[in-house]
Amino acid sequence: MLRMPAPDRLRVKVSGLYRCDDLQRALEALPAQAGALRMVSANPVTGNALVVFDPQCPLDAVLAALERCALDHGAPFVGAAASRPVSGKGPARPDHRRNGRPAAAPRPKLAAVIADTVRNKESWHALDAEEVLSRLSANRDGLGAAVVAERLARYGRNVLTEIKPRSAVAMFLGQFASPPVALLGLSAAVSIATGGMADAVVIVGVVLINAVIGYFTEAQAQKTIDALGKIGPTHALVMRDGVKRSVPLEEVVPGDILVLSPGSYIAADARLLASNRLTVDESALTGESLPVDKRHTFVGTKDTPLGDRKNMLHMGTIVTGGSGRAIVVATGRHTEIGLIQSLVGEVKTPETPLQRQLDEMGKQLALASSGICAFVFGLGVLRGAPALQMLKTAISLAVAAVPEGLPTVATSTLALGIREMKKRHVLIRQLPSVESLGSVQTLCLDKTGTLTENCMRVVSLRTPELDIGLSATGEFRSNGRTIRPAGAEDLRRLMQVVCLCSEVQLNGDPDRSVPPGSQRVDAEPLSADASGRSGLEGSPTEMALVEMAMHAGEDVAALRRSLPLIKTVHRAEGRPYMLTVHDTGGEEHLIAVKGSPTHVLALCDRRMEGGGVPVPLDDDTRAAIVEQNELMAGQALRVLGVAYGHCRDTSTAAVSEKLVWLGMVGMEDTMRPGMAELMAQFHDAGIDTVMITGDQSATAFAFGSRLNLNDDKPLEIVDSTNLDELDPDVLKGIVRDTTVFARVAPAQKLRIVQALQANGRVVAMTGDGINDGPALKAADVGVALGNGSDVARSVADVVLEDDNLHTMIIAVQQGRTIYRNIRKSLAYLLSGNLAEIEIMLVATAIGAGEALNPMQLLWINLVTDILPAVGLSLEPPESDVLKEKPRAPNEKIFRREDLLRLLRQSLVISAGTLGVYGYGLARYGLGPAASTHAFMALTVGQMFHAISCRSERTTVLEKRAGNPVLVSGVAATVALQAFAAVFPPLRGLLRLTPIGPADWAAIAAGSVLPFVANEAIKLLPSREPESENRA
Question: What's the total number of domains in the chain?
Fold first, then answer.
């Protein structure tokens, strides 16, 4: 059967797809082989496949491609047998079958089947740049205001199709779609059959009230969940009338010229016009973590698969490196991601692992309770009880036995927890992240900007002849005396080189920019006046160097005017230094270099004396420089080597020329306050801390030691220079005991995270830079700082809005607390429900009549259970929540030991209630009076049990934070119970009798004694392994 909900998509039945994961993968890989198939989503559970294709492509070709794939996997293509779609247009496909089986006719290649049918489609990736400009009536200077307005009116705003959320009506009706509600309906029908019309009306009323409460709870939770992930860029940089302008994303139109740089959000589908080592993170579209290279010179064919179109950029992706310009070819719902999103008719929030686990638990409980209730029914009938009455009792007991909507309890608790975290500046962007936070075992920390203030300051200078310290006020001192750098030629030249080999912009120097053909690959992001340095804009490192030169009296602007920049060679993997070439006005050009001391030193064959004369660089001096570098790095300083030279030819990188060594600069990036204490808190919580930095090993080791990253154990450090050459299994072994990774290139962060995960660790990764994106996405919990790049914030699961790593420990605390609170709510509900089953089972088994009538069971389950459960879901963190080890990610919410504990608690509660019921039987005999005693004792006993459920190990005698919501919930429930006892209509409905003072004493004893017993049991030694202890 075929269904075509739109001209460019169809839903088709493939019987061989059922429970066939191989065929699912093959079908979903089809778009990579044929350009006209935009997307295939195959479901091995239903056996259906949803196909999105080019509307210009005939349906026959689409079906032929799908059939070929199915037949290749030995599966019949049922959908192809239909002579015509249910809706939509398309020619009938002949049925090439022989004896009920597909004919073995030769089949053309898939690309040919599809691509040859598409002739009139505008394939932007198959056109050169000038042709694209011509067809869009645009030029490289951008569109004019009038053209933009006209195209905005023609094509509409650049927004994706609004996905319809679940309607309020659907959400309300969903409250009735559950087994307990079905059982209640059956109970109402039985009541009508037995003449209990009033009972039926009450049951329906209770169902409606429960539905209203469930609706408002779910609506609030859904509102919180819908807000997740609503973070990201709002503007795009485009050319308009020859001027760069930042415009709202929704106002981008076809023909606009996008200006691209690291961190740029791609506002629409676009064809590249120019590119310089451009890389793009396409994970939002393809799921691929690694950045993809893009080239404007690439020209594909019409059938080039989407993933291989190197000259195309797509909406929702992000530039991770390089630069370029691109012309917009599609906006809004016409983009690739817009076509995919338009398939979604209604949003359904994916279930978290915990929700799936609870759903499965609910099914198991329903099955078990059904068996028990059937047994109770049979036993009652055998003992002579009326069959219809026992049927009502059994149905009511079944309703009471299974807490309604276990996954909803988890969703509501998670949503409430997310709102609480938001108050503490923790923004959760993915619902499962709340669960993962409680399981984090390893925290990978990016040093710069996370552990430090990202505000560099030069504190030390070393030349072959001088050891100089720089004070916070900019005073240069050596051997206890103040010196003037301008008076020493070697120092003056060093100051000039660090100003020239720099991209720091000055006020009054607006034209200082990277020359054409250059690319920024330094991992440090640019920041405007990040440290309060007046008139400087650039990376923290380069601003610190220029500020030092200014303190030395250097006129930076005049220096740059006298030595104009010709060429820049940036830092890159395998080239840890930056080099610039400058016009001196003569035949030779000046080369300025700064970077890794050892690498820069290897380029030098001379050094400069204090008088400004270069002299040969001998081995002893080299060894002394290396020793000085290690000494400075050992003080946790970031050390840069500085050199200069001359060249005639600027067409090469000019590094083959031997340079003159000038000296080293040591910079300090101040550690954020309280970092060492914070690391101790993570260690106490059972979380290993790992630092990842681009610093050299000695610097990283010194910094890591100051942080006590390895919790008083020897610090294990790995130099990551050759990390890419390691076999994955070897790397997996290395990362087990490594605390510090030094000299890490941006791409290597991803490998480190994946290697830790390969060891079974739950990994959280912090980051704030553009190049942190892949590692943040791969981590179990990606954590971005609030002031980080848009790339980091857009792929992270958690954003620390106050830019403070201390908030991370709060996030972990809240994650663990939320998980505990879900357990507490469920423990309260399950133990209470078990007690009800046990009471009814024992009473029926011994022929003691009905301890609880059907209406009382419904009252307990649908009225008195709700408020205390909500209160427990809002419990504040316990004092030891950060003293236990993280739970295993695959650990069941209730282990065997937990279930035994719940059974024990329920037996204690049911024993107390049965004791009161026995008292009632002895005093009043069988009938409503004894049942009233049991009803009151059980309800009040469950209120005491709610208080006991606040902790699994500590008693109520130990001091802990208050929970006003729980107290209010218990008080309200007790008030409802008292109201039921005195309000005649309600008392009659529940079949309650008056209770005397002596009776209340018995009820109090049956309620309080189980509470005391369960609290006393907590004081007994635990048999659980210490590593698995819970609060």
Answer: 5
